[in-house]
């Protein structure tokens, strides 16, 4: 890829996904620009090497101005706390598309699973029908439809993944649901509801984005890919990985989905969580065939290493070597029965 074309604007660079993609691009020699309403807060976000520009993703002029001279716009901005999707999500993507059209840039979007009916799409591929049942799903499906309609004039890349975990994944079900940050792990909340679930280690996902952008000539004008990540078919794989790093069995409690449905009429987080509860009730696995075709292999950190780094970043375990299943033969005898 030409050096002069290796400049990206990252919208949402202060967030977990945007920050991880920005870090991966900077690591490959890209110049990365970030748009932020508060520059002081942005500069303290922890991502080194970003050139920050003042502005708001809801202001089209700000986005177009920040996009001047870039070849790629990473659209990783989302309303905080699952709130105000109806008012914010589509206007922001419209501004990004307008900016990309103005400067001739490719739009890059971290995709979600909300676009689908989880009861009827156990395996997601680029051709899976987007027939969402949730409010958020309908918005995300329309967001992707707008990118598809804008092509080929505006090229775009969508890479879909499951739920995030890993350093920087602060607003995630793992960091805010399964494990409490800032203290030793004493219990685990099992968010899954007896169905297989897909997880993405954030540094691996960000690396996949960066590798794909290194090969623009191989990408279609509208490219929709899936990142397989870790498919927890039994619902116990992630729990057992946490236990290995903690070194003992832990009490496991079910997430109170019943309470989310009960409290949903009163609004707030309960309503937003209840809206997407079905993705935890039905199995959804990513078909990464096209991604592997483009990259040769999906970036894949061993689960025990990924889990260890995640818990270290959350302040839950000390920085040591990760514990693997083979280590359990000589340490942590109480885990041997579960991890032979």
Number of strands: 14
The largest beta-sheet arranges its strands as 3-2-1-4-5-7-11
Write down the overall geometry: globular
Query: What proportion of the residues form beta strands (DSSP E)?
Result: 15-25%
Structural class, by secondary structure, is: alpha/beta
Query: Could you list the spans in which at least 5 consecutive residues all have pLDDT below 50?
Result: 336-340
Radius of gyration: 20 Å
- The count of helical stretches stands at 13
Largest pleated sheet: 7 strands, parallel
Helical amount: 25-40%
Oligomeric status of the shown chains?
single chain
Distance between the termini: 47 Å
User: Averaging pLDDT over every residue, what do you get?
Assistant: 90
| SSE order | EHEHEHEHEEHEEHEEHEEHEHHHEHH
Topology:
Layout: E1 7-11, H1 16-27, E2 31-36, H2 39-43, E3 50-54, H3 60-66, E4 72-75, H4 85-103, E5 106-111, E6 123-124, H5 135-150, E7 156-160, E8 163-165, H6 173-178, E9 188-190, E10 197-201, H7 202-213, E11 222-226, E12 230-232, H8 237-246, E13 252-254, H9 257-263, H10 268-275, H11 278-281, E14 285-286, H12 289-295, H13 303-313
Parallel strand pairs: 1-2, 1-4, 2-3, 4-5, 5-7, 6-14, 7-11, 8-10, 9-13
Antiparallel strand pairs: 10-12
Helix pairs in contact: 1-7, 3-4, 4-5, 8-13, 9-10
Describe the structure in your own words.
The protein has 340 residues and is α/β, with parallel strands linked by helices. 36% of the residues lie in helices and 17% in strands. It is built from 13 helices and 14 strands. The protein has helices at 16-27, 39-43, 60-66, 85-103, 135-150, 173-178, 202-213, 237-246, 257-263, 268-275, 278-281, 289-295, 303-313; strands at residues 7-11, 31-36, 50-54, 72-75, 106-111, 123-124, 156-160, 163-165, 188-190, 197-201, 222-226, 230-232, 252-254, 285-286. The strands form four sheets. Strands 3-2-1-4-5-7-11 form a seven-stranded parallel β-sheet, sandwiched between helices. α4 (85-103) links the parallel β4 and β5. The longest helix is centred in the N-terminal third of the chain and has 19 residues, at 85-103. It is globular. The protein starts with 6 loop residues before the first strand and ends in a 27-residue tail after the last helix.
């Amino acid at each position: 890829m030409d050096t002069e074309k290796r400049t990206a604007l990252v919208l949402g660079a202060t967030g977990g996904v945007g920050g991880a993609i920005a870090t991966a691009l900077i690591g490959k020699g890209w110049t990365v620009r970030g748009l932020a309403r508060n520059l002081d807060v942005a500069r303290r976000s922890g991502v080194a090497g970003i050139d920050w520009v003042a502005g708001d993703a809801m202001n089209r002029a700000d986005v177009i101005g920040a996009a001047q001279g870039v070849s790629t716009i990473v659209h990783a901005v989302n309303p905080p706390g699952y709130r105000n999707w109806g008012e914010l999500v589509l206007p922001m993507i419209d501004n990004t598309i307008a900016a990309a059209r103005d400067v001739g840039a490719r739009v890059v979007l971290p995709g979600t699973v909300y676009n689908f009916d989880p009861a009827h799409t156990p395996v997601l591929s680029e051709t899976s029908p987007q027939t969402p049942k949730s409010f958020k799903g309908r918005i995300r499906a329309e967001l992707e439809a707008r990118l598809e309609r804008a092509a080929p004039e505006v090229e775009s890349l969508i890479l879909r993944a499951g739920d995030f975990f890993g350093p920087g994944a602060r607003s995630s079900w793992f960091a805010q649901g399964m494990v409490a940050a800032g203290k030793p792990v004493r219990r685990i909340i099992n968010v899954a509801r007896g169905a297989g679930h897909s997880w993405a280690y954030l540094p691996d996902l960000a690396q996949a984005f960066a590798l794909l952008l290194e090969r623009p000539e191989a990408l279609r004008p509208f490219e929709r890919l899936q990142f397989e990540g870790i498919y927890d078919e039994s619902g116990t794989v992630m729990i057992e990985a946490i236990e290995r790093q903690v070194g003992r069995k832990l009490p496991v409690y079910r997430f109170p989905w019943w309470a989310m449905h009960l409290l949903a009429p009163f609004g707030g987080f309960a309503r937003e969580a209840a809206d997407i509860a079905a993705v935890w009730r039905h199995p959804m696995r990513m078909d990464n065939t096209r991604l592997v075709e483009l990259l040769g292999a999906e970036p894949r950190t061993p689960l025990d290493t990924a889990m260890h780094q995640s818990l270290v970043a959350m302040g839950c375990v000390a920085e040591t070597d990760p514990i693997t299943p083979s280590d359990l033969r000589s340490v942590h005898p109480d885990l041997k029965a579960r991890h032979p």
